[in-house]
Write a structure and sequence with these properties.
By secondary structure, this protein is mostly beta strands. It folds into 3 domains: about 160 residues, Hotdog Thioesterase (Thiol Ester Dehydrase, Chain A); about 45 residues; about 70 residues, OB fold (Dihydrolipoamide Acetyltransferase, E2P). It is about 10% helix and about 35% strand. The termini are far apart.
Length: about 325
Amino acid sequence: MRPLSDVHHLLKAFEGRPAAVSASARDPVNLPMIRHWCEVMGDTHPAYSGEDAIAPPTMLQAWTMPGLSGGTAARTGAYEELFALLDGAGYTAVVATDCEQEYVRPLRPGDLPTFDTVIEAVSPRKTTRLGTGYFITTMMRVQAAGRLVGTHRFRIFTYAPDPGPAATTTTAPADPHPARPRPVINRDNAPFWAGVAEHKLLIQRCTACGTLRFPWLPGCGRCGSPAWGTVEACGSGTVHSYVVVHHPPFPAFDPPYAVVLVELAEGVRMISNITGVPPDAVRIGMSVELEFIRLDDGGELPVFRARSDRPDGAES
């Protein structure tokens, strides 16, 4: 395979050019969408319901998304040219990497968000475990009735997809057991992973209103307090929902495998893997119990093992 050319000098010319100008949300802010969002997120804050409801700040991007039908009319020629250049150079794969949001004032039902987006930055060519490519950062300013509501900085990685074993020229044999990806540990969740190392599953508890929350967050979604303590989960739960992953294959994972959303006995939900049962035998309502698996480097991960009893508690 011919080495990909470095087109960074061409991509840099797009920095500062608009990606969308005076674009409008597909729908005004409305209570049904707010309700669906809160149900999915498990957010019961009273500010998001009733006659004086506001939209959750984290919905900022939701109002600006084009939907499955496309809605690319808001995109400028510069945006299309940028990605045409990347595609033509062989950087055809895209993955979202991170986003940053700033909230200035709340959106309310009836507001019609409008937004402008700028291509803020293009990184030099980078090589990651996914492949070689460029990080593209856009900055969106969202307004309603001419007033700034918030900003949304979004970063993606556009890269050349792996050509596959047939095109690989390396002489080193592939690792038959690649290492499993490690969790990202930061200042907000470090105490959780410290508990896992001691075989404890810790749930955050707001010390102001007593609300339990998972995953770990820097503040309470119910009352906004940053003060918190912990409760150790008993380890029992049931499968609330699940998916069976068949494709695409990913290093260190052997499809098919099941990913489950477990409702813990304490009332919060947690995404993890399930053991002790074939993927096609996982069922909603299945009773599970906590266990810990050891990784190659000695780290631990909490997973859930299917119990032998039925969801209704009767013995098999």
